[in-house]
Fold this protein.
Amino acid sequence: MRGKTGRLLRGLALLSTLALGATACGGSDDDSSDTKAVSAGDIQAALKKGGSVTVWAWEPTLKSVAADFEKKYPKVKINLVSERSGDKHYTALSNAISAGKGVPDVAQVEYFALGQYSLTKGLSDLAPYGAAKLASKYTPGPWNAVSDGDKVYGLPMDSGPMALFYNKKVFDKYKIAVPTTWDEYLDAARKLHKADPKAYIANDTGDAGFTTSMLWQAGSRPYKVDGTKVAINFDDAGAKKFETVWQKLISEKLLAPVTGWTDDWYKGLGDGTIATLATGAWMPANFETGVPNAKGDWRAAAMPAWTKGDKASAENGGSSLALPALGKNKELAYAFVEYANAGDGVATRVSEGAFPATVAELQSTEFKNKEFPYFGGQKANEIFAESAANVADDWSYLPFQPYANSIFNDTVGKAYVSSTTLADGLKAWQDASVKYGQEQGFTIEK
Amino acid sequence: MSTSVTASPAKTKNTAPKLRTPRAKHTPGKPKRSVLLTVLMALMVLYTVVPLIWLVINSTKTQSGLAESNGLWFAHDFALWDNIRDAFTYHDGIFGRWLLNTLLYVVLGAGGATLLAVLGGYALAKFDFPGKRAVFAVVIGAVAVPGTALAVPTFLMFSKMGLTDTPWAVIIPSLVSPFGLYLMWVFAAEAIPTELLEAARMDGASEVRTFFQVALPLLAPGIVTVLLFTTVATWNNYFLPLIMLKDPDWYPLTLGLSAWSSQAQTIGGDVIFNLVITGSLLTILPLIAAFLFLQKYWQSGLAAGSVKE
């Protein structure tokens, strides 16, 4: 309906440009590195002077944090833009950075995507602002994700130590024990599906974030990153463990063919046809708003182990607040990030259901003793805190992980819908990632 | 274009007897019934009405009601009023802001497009000037170019001019409606007898006065038709605002609802499918109202020129 001729459009647009007095302006040519240390005094002075900070973040508890911050520093205005998330968020952020215009002062960046932005110098190093001194405040997994040597590219906002959420009602009904190892999990999957052909132990149609977290837990370290030198290899013992168990689940059709985060998925979690969910500790908040009808049915448990008694865990999800290099009001922006992720904001966010990345909150008795009415009064944080302590910190994502994740379904995804095996799928993913890395100018080590 | 497709069943239904009458002369006033056509029409009605029924029924449910109940029947809880209230109060009432934005885009974009189409169509129909054939070729060509194909070039151009992320980025492209122009042109040629214009000129009326006092009243049905078409197009516009706007404060309803829907795919995000559904219902109500109230005008507008008097 909105067809239009180029000529007419140009004419009209030109007219209105003149009318509005808007001028074309290119990208910022000021790519100055901010290596100069910023003292606490500078930040205080900036807070006193005031100004506005634009924050692109979807994390819901930031709303209260921003309100508190504005109350504490009345001259500062926090402009929270929250109606965007996931892919759209990164597309918009990348577009703004490459256009050099409309870049926010603070952006929420998930751990898996940080490498992409820090490597292209899209983010400010926060160490000169004093962020390096905050290292001991955070658990190792998240801190490892935001820091690279002596550089700090963001402050951890939350973390996602993994846990196994299971529908107790379903497990009780069919008298199935809650699995403590992945082999038991496989047995439980068979038992459950046999008892009720409509019920599945889990859903999975191929999810890059889940698979990488599972590899992480199994001890696989497929990505090795050293600056622009990258190695990608899915052929190790940890990956084998994961492939063996998961291939059986796929081949025996024990996984519900439901894609995560869809309305079908929420429905399955609610009606008992998806009986477990191995995911990050932030999940309770999503359970409460997305699956309100299953209140009381679900419980949390430690992740099943790959060998009995092993406590190794992994992270799934979690994000940081970072300062895009082209953002303005750097001192104010940093002050807000520190307030939200290391200062008073943490308590506010935890009280509203966010899962912290800070040691003090994770260790506090108040946090551990919190009873979750949704989980029938279970003190689920004890499980999550233990998982957080058992996350290995030597995992790294690719500096182009968002791209790699975007091709996951074309490669590994085939294992879920055809006769391709999971091992072949991972090999195809590896090859495609290597190819892209080379095209982007990375040195790929064999 | 999608909107005119949904409008077409009604159009065919209403004009079909009129068009068929001359051929079926032997049974005036009693058009032949075709079982096949009736069945096809019934399927079409089902196809267009079922989603609407689904929308109305499900906007009465809470988030948990949505998961527990069948899609085509009511849940045990009736939460329509709560949902409407929540839709308008969620996130500091941003839904109301989106509604006002959409209205702004429609008033300025669709209103402006209609104004331009009326002026241009009248000029093309009633005045002779060099290059008229070229204009005709360009307009007909432009009708065939889908808006989606122009969105990216438009974005790049607007970006260079610094107009992206402002309401102008949505309003300016909406001002151009080749189809509206073409419709007004055809309509003006039929509806305004050239003799009438000549008589007015003989009596000494200026061109401006002739246009406003003689031509405009005759064009009313055509104007309403074009206005409805451009309104629907602007109201439903999704792709253009999607690439042009970053600031949610300037989102139209289409973008806002999609943002709410994608919240469910976010760690820690609120799952508000019930508000998305209720919001969608609230979004289509003004359009339905506009169609119902202006029905008699746009029908006669569409049929103009189809019957030789």
